[in-house]
Amino acid sequence: MKDHHAHLYRPSTDYSHTDAIGRHVDYLCPGAYCAWRSGTDYLGDQASAAALDAMRERLGLNRPLLEQYFEFMGNALSGDWGESMVTGKSILGEVINVLPYTLELTFVSVIFGVVTGIPLGIWSALHRNQLIDYFVRLMTLIGLSFPAFVSAILLLIIFSINLGWLPVISSGGRDDFIGWFRDLALPALTLGTIMTAYIARVTRSSMLDVLSEDYIRTARAKGVPNKVIIWHHALRNALIPVVTMVGLFLGVLVGNSVLTEIVFNRPGLGKLIVGALGQRDYTMLQGLMVCYAFIIIFINILTDLTYGLIDPRVKYQ
Amino acid sequence: MTEKSENMPAPLSSSALFQEQVKRTFRSNKLTGLGAVIFLLVLLAAVFAPLLSTHDPLIQNILDRLEGPSAQFWMGTDAYGRDIYSRLLYGARISLTIGGVAILSAMVIGTAIGIIAGYYGGKVDDVIMQFNDILLAFPTLILGLIVVAMLGPSMQNMIIAISLTSIPGFARIARAPTIVVRERDFIEACRALGYRDWRIMVFHILPNVTSEVLVMASLWLATAIRTEASLSFIGLGVKPPAATWGGMIREGFENILDNPWLSIFPGLAILLVVFSLNLLGDGLRDAIDPKTRVD
């Protein structure tokens, strides 16, 4: 395949590697992992054998892999996530510093997605195969086709650059509510619209499923008013699959928050992970992976518990 | 096993039925056709990029840098004076190759894993699916990010990373119908005839799995192309000066205050491809799902 595109790799006097992100990437050459295992890549090619040994000793790379794994996990569980290879700062401390920013962004985006997506989905389902339905389906499909960084950039161009309503860089400045809101508005709108699209589609199909159930027909036959059927009988059952999907989409959202944080230059886990990648800070990356795993597990537990709230048939022992 | 087979649902869609359903979908749902046409056009544009492009995508011309769209440069030029329209065409090659190869290999590997897990069941199934679920739990982008970071950014490693993120999904999709088909009488008959396991899996179970897998492949190709663009945007894509859509947006983003079109054109290109594939996949999924079939 490489030969196929050989002409694309021709060397040229290109200055594009001087940009901020590209600079890091040039250091992050192929084989980084192997080089890391031997320590050469972090200390440079000229590192002495003694320096390499000291490095291996410090990172524990000379011990069996399983031993390294269990020691790391044991430490992680007791709150010791180690230090960054590059800055020497505590990884847990760094993560806790930026975690509120990512959580706040994710939380507000989900709320936005739920508040707009569920009514949109119900509306679409109630007008099945009518103009409104087609319109909603088309718009939501466009919505979930947007890579987060493209919609982020479009929003940035429209609201920050052309209209000048909101700040281009959304970090810091959280003294008052208005400053906080102005910082959060565009990143949350970026992720929120993606969430709206996903939730509206799930709500629509779930609502259609429920509306074709026998008990809905029975309710209709008894003469229950349409409003009561939809809001009382159908909606609650239709929301069960929506909760599952919201839990799943939260994972997508956490992934997309990386891109959003880069575009809006906002502090958060995403900025931390990209910074660590650039500096090849592997201990930091390791810590961040554990952090992401915890977040995903936490979301799953939260999702499971929410079932009990919506569906009285679910009982926890 | 024979007792169970009586309770099994009606036969799944075989490949002939699948073709019929697809034809019907294209006739009744015009949007599915639109998605297919758009995607085909992009595919053709990528294949014939050398013929369609107006400039060399890599040649820099510092005198013409950051020009707006004009008759000479249809979509303007970037900070190095390269023609954006030509770079978009060549970028399509990279995006489609990485996405296509990654999804194709993930489809083959994932389907094989799913069928094996579903067919043998028991411990094999437990171990494979547990591992699968761990991979599925991570967001695609985060997993891709880590894999590319470990292996280093190159076309080959992008394919490995994106493929790895898609394998668990395919395994899961292939496993579900396998468990159902496994219990049917004709598989029992195959066993009675003394067929080997691989023969049953390849010739008798695989055809019952293909429709679901193919539909998801079109949807996940969209995800793969989006992931490729996202990784390139972060700076982990195919290295410059090669033209990648994500990379073009990243470079354009630095001049966003004065020259927003630098990021807008590649952004729209990604959106168009992903949207067309979603349109296509969505229609096909409706076609094989009896509940949502268009009447």
Sequence-ordered SSE layout with sheet pairings:
The complex is a heterodimer of chains A (317) and B (295).
Chain A: H1 20-27, H2 32-38, H3 40-43, H4 49-59, H5 65-77, H6 91-126, H7 131-145, H8 148-162, H9 177-211, H10 214-222, H11 226-263, H12 269-278, H13 282-310
Helix pairs in contact in A: 6-7, 6-9, 6-11, 7-9, 8-9, 8-11, 9-11, 11-12, 11-13, 12-13
Chain B: H1 2-6, H2 15-28, H3 30-47, H4 49-52, H5 84-120, H6 122-137, H7 140-151, H8 155-182, H9 185-192, H10 197-205, H11 210-234, H12 245-253, H13 261-288
Strand content of chain B: under 5%
Query: Which overall shape of chain B is indicated by the principal axes computed on the Cα atoms?
Result: elongated
Q: How many discrete domains of chain B? A: 1
> Overall pLDDT of chain B, averaged?
83
Give the SSE string of chain B: HHHHHHHHHHHHH
Summarize the largest interface: chains and residue counts. Answer: A-B, 63 and 62 residues
Low-pLDDT windows of residues of chain B: 1-10
Q: Helix/strand-derived class of chain B?
A: mainly alpha
Continuous helix count of chain A: 13
Q: How many distinct beta strands of chain B?
A: 0
- Element-level helix/strand string of chain A: HHHHHHHHHHHHH
- What is the name of the CATH superfamily of chain B? MetI-like
Count of discrete structural domains of chain A? 2
CATH superfamily of the largest domain in chain A: MetI-like
Low-confidence stretches of chain A: 1-40
Helix content of chain A: over 70%
Residue fraction in strands of chain A: under 5%
End-to-end CA span of chain A: 56 Å
**Number of contiguous helices of chain B:** 13
CATH class of the largest domain in chain A: Mainly Alpha
